[in-house]
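Section 4.2 – Deliverable D4.2 (structural model, holo form)

The reporting period included a commitment to supply a predicted holo structure for the target in complex with adenosine monophosphate. Inputs used:
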Amino acid sequence: MILFKKEYQLQNYLNTLKSDKKSIGIVPTMGALHDGHLSLIQKAKEDNDCVVCTIFVNPTQFNNATDLEKYPRTVAKDIELLTSIGTDVLLMPSVEEVYPEGLDTTLELDFGKLATTMEGEFRPGHFDGMAQVVNRLVNMVQPHSLYMGQKDFQQITIVRSMLTQLESKIKLVMVPIMRHEDGLAMSSRNVRLTPENRNRAVIISQTLSEAKNKVENKTPKEVETWAMKELSIPEFKPEYFEIVDGITLQPIDDFNETDFAVACTAVWAGEVRLIDNMVLKS
Ligand code: AMP
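Output (structure tokens):
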């Protein structure tokens, strides 16, 4: 694996591959890698000649200074993991490299209601920062394909909208959620859970699975109300549990309204905020 910290060095390397007609896949991450991230790399490896993983904890997408400060950083282990699965390139730029003085990296795009619901409501500014960094990393690498996880369902929906608005030719590939054996979605933030809350956190995927079983007999509103109660266990505070159309991300009143219904949730487990989702109908 070759590690680059500078954009121009990375581009020199990739230009040679591109002139040889090699395909490039990018997997953007914030590090503290787990098997969920590695499944994105594996998928990108299957589809491409060269996989570029990026590790960059993007300050512009954190709306909470403590969350940014406490975000886990495990660079040595990340490099080991990436090397062990045959990642071709790791880009690990500094904040100055991503946002150099004199370069306007802001994006003047309107994501409409996609960005104001759910995460957008509870993390103001988060998606603007996320779209800004994904666009910047994509411009640095200029890949053929971009790999992102279903775990951040709203995020990938917004990135799809961004690529459409920019008339980009990059193919966006969604990779399914990797879960621990008990069902908890893998997340870099899981290491911050207390042992008790780590055990309790199984309630999140359980509630999503049970919600799926209720589609036949309940309305979305009834399922949401039931789920919010289910998730309100000691030390846990659900922020939202919303059943939305998987394309527009708008709430649905009736399961017959759409062919693609997704339940999305965010839950505070002690001091750690966890998100998860499940397709209820597709
Ligand atoms: P992050 O480092 O949390 O920004 O995540 C980087 C990428 O990995 C994003 O596209 C996430 O959606 C994806 N990802 C995170 N957790 C998982 C998971 N459990 N399964 C699959 N993909 C994931």
